[in-house]
């Protein structure tokens, strides 16, 4: 079996570590697809879902709030401040956080407040979109 080792790590913990046939994730310039023996690469990734096609044919799904991707021919590493397993995503919490971020955008007093709130809103919108995709596949 032709596989590549994948590690997805958040600031708090290792979220996923295992063998995969394929990994798809949101690069800054668009969707990236990584197969075993991929050319080495380091790039930033946007908020969204990391989809990992496992060696056994199953699929693992992790939401990341942006981060860094490192690809070596035999290993993929995703580093993100925030990463949540698809099965751990919570509809209610995500929607509450999105509403709070929308309110913060409305109430921003300075450009910096607006930038922070807009960034948080973008991350929460991406998490909700990722959650919907994950739920559709189940």
Description of the molecule:
There is one protein chain. This protein has 138 residues and is an alpha+beta fold. Helix content is 32%, strand content 44%. The chain has two helices and seven strands. A five-stranded mixed beta barrel has the order 1-2-4-5-6. It is elongated. The two termini are 26 Å apart.
Radius of gyration: 16 Å
Helix content: 25-40%
Average predicted local confidence, pLDDT: 83
The count of DSSP E runs of length 2 or more, i.e. the number of strands, is: 7
Helix/strand-derived class?
alpha+beta
Question: How would you spell out the order of helices and strands?
Answer: EEEEEEEHH
The major pleated sheet works out as: 5 strands, mixed, barrel
Describe the strand arrangement of the main beta sheet, using strand numbers.
Answer: 1-2-4-5-6
What gross morphology would you assign? Answer: elongated
Helix tally equals 2
List the helices and strands and how they pair.
Layout: E1 4-9, E2 14-27, E3 30-34, E4 41-54, E5 59-72, E6 75-79, E7 83-85, H1 91-107, H2 111-137
Parallel strand pairs: 1-6
Antiparallel strand pairs: 1-2, 2-3, 2-4, 4-5, 5-6, 5-7
Task: Give the tags.
single chain, 138 residues, alpha+beta, 5-stranded mixed beta barrel, 2 helices, 7 strands
Tell me briefly what this model is:
The model has no long low-confidence stretch (mean pLDDT 83).
């Amino acid at each position: 079996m032709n596989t590549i080792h994948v590690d997805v790590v958040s600031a708090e913990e290792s979220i996923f570590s295992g063998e995969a046939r394929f990994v798809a994730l949101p690069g800054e310039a668009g969707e990236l697809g990584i197969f075993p023996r991929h050319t080495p690469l380091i790039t930033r990734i946007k908020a969204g879902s990391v989809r990992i096609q496992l060696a056994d044919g199953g699929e693992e799904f992790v939401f990341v709030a942006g981060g860094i991707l490192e690809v070596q021919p035999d290993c993929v590493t995703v580093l993100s401040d925030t990463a949540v397993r698809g099965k751990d995503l919570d509809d209610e919490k995500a929607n509450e956080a999105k509403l709070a971020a929308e309110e913060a955008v409305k109430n921003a007093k300075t450009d910096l407040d607006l930038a922070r709130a807009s960034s948080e809103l973008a991350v929460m919108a991406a998490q909700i979109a990722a959650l919907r995709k994950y739920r559709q596949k189940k």
